[in-house]
Amino acid sequence: IQMSKGWGYVATFGVFGVAFGYAASFGPLTWLLTSEMFSTSVRGRALGASTIVTYLSASLVSYTFLSGQKVLGPCVPFVIYSVITSASVLFAYLAIPDTGDRSPEEIEADIQDMWWWRQSWGICTKAQHQDPAGADAAVSTKYASMDELPEQSKQQVIV
Where exactly are the structural domains of the chain? Predict the structure, then answer.
């Protein structure tokens, strides 16, 4: 791909920006947040799911980058990826609570209070927890018991 010297600098800055930005934020942050936000009973599955999402996202970028440069020009893919990254930063600000020195239960309570999750998960605003005896420790604030939840919501809560 032939480009002017100015666009070459923009593209180079974009490459370094993506590498630095990922290494300083979302790369290690996914591992840290996943390990802090989930209890040990589901932590392995949560780490697996976040790893799959991370690798699929990286694969999508790798798959679309060169063809995007060929079709759209040398800088447009960087603009597209930076818009997506900016949306991710906004999501992190709106939907990820501070996890420092806090238990998963405290983090979950913060998540329940966050605007993003109240809007996104309107039916069930609290996940179900089982105490050692197997009784429901917490259910949705909208419903008094699990029996009142719609069947689809019960399946989401029990997972």
Answer: 5-95, 104-158
The residue whose two tokens read 């930076």 is 82
Q: What is the reported pLDDT for 113?
A: 83
Say if CB 77 and CB 64 are below 8 A apart. yes
Residue 120 pLDDT: 64
pTM of the model: 0.57
Residues 94 and 116: beta-carbon distance below 8 Å: yes
Instruction: Indicate the angle between helix axes 26-37 and 104-113, nearest 10 degrees.
Output: 110
How many other C-beta atoms can be found within 10 angstroms of the C-beta atom of residue 34? 19
Q: What is the mean pLDDT of residues 11-29?
A: 80
* 6 CB neighbour count, 10 Å cutoff: 9
Residues 6+ apart with CB under 8 A from 137: 128, 129, 130, 131
Beta-bridge partner residues of 129? 138
Please write the tens of the pLDDT for every residue from 80-137. 988 888 888 888 888 888 888 888 888 888 888 887 777 765 544 444 444 444 444 4
Task: Report how far residue 146's alpha carbon sits from residue 27's, in angstroms, rounded to the nearest whole number.
Answer: 37
How many angstroms separate the CA atoms of 157 and 159, rounded? 6
